[in-house]
Amino acid sequence: MAIFDINNLLLDGVMSSASDIHICSGAKPALRINGVLV
Question: How far is Cα 33 from Cα 37, in angstroms, rounded to an integer?
Fold first, then answer.
């Protein structure tokens, strides 16, 4: 469950910076568009 908590924190940071597209690098790289994991 820790991974989801980390993703939520990253997502909050993305929304705070008002970024539409954000690439999260880490153990599980993920591309988020408008806060949606794709």
Answer: 7
